[in-house]
Amino acid sequence: MSCLVVILSMTAVNYIVDPYMLFQVQRISSFNDKKPAAANRSALYKPYNVININPKTIIVGNSRPEMGLNPESNCWPENNGEIYNLTFPGIGFYGQIRALFHAVEGADNIENILLAIDFADFLYKRRLVKEVVWPKQHSSFLGRLLVDEELRENKGYFLNKVQDYSMALFSLDALNDSIYTILAQDEYSTDRTALGFNPAKDYQKMIRYEGPWILFEQKRNDLERRFAREGMSIYDTGEWSLELEAIKRVIEMATKKNIKLTLFINPYHYSYLEIIRSSGYWNEFESFKKNIQKAVKKYGQERVKFWDFSIYSAYTVTLTPKKDIKSSGNRWFWEPAHYKKELGDLMLESIFGKSCNKYKAKDVGVNLNNITTDNHNKHQAEVRLKLLSEI
What we know:
By secondary structure, this protein is α/β, with parallel strands linked by helices.
């Protein structure tokens, strides 16, 4: 009897605290409002939440749009309805696209998709093949999706869901995370909103106690190591790759289902762009843009938008915080790879043409639907020289 009481008590605590955001219970200030234990578990709760919430608009991508595009921003058009940030830090582009297909299959209300594309997700060491194969992969994350790689029913979905929810209710790990959640309710607790957005509380804490320069320094070192690797490519074959195949499939699905699709390349601080250039991967970066544009033109039936925010502009060519200079940080970037919601709002303003900000969104991005990437790249080279000479 005492054992049963312990189990029921543990279950009640895990349900009420809801550390992994699976049950979507009411969030109570100073008790379970912040969700630090969910921060590294987007692969666990987001596939289920997007189905339960049934949004009209989804944002898909990695950690950059998770921190940069706020579903609750006033820069979204009113007709975009409920918006969910279906983004997954640490999961590659193939997994992101599989999650997108899952959402479209299960959340039958989706009319708009914003797909964030990140160069780093496309560039790595390749094993060259003769033709692109759309792989059948297995992981706990992919097991949580309603459909497999060919959009057929995932017959193991229900069992995986039962196992995940049971773990969140009955496991000691969940109880430990429930206790951690209760104890970690402070201003700078790592958190995720109910709509999947990362408010970057951990970054804010680091800026307060160590200064904004440390974020830029750490990320710059990470990027230099990442791009120092030799022999990386965006191609699996001479001109194509798994990631470009994923883009093709998304475009075909969206046009078939009459879903409004906007592809966009994430913005980077100019110091990130300069690392790409100095590491010898600038040609790959330009080819990356060109091949996405080709896919949009070939499969999009002139109904898919394609924006490039990875440009040299007044927003990206901005001063880097210095160690010995007191500063509240860069207005638009947390560090070279992650942009703030303030820049995300300007991106939304450009995409949707809605005036919602006191800052003008001029040159925050370039619509690549009606210009060639060759002309775009040539113009960017000129803009780079001008802006870098002024900083």
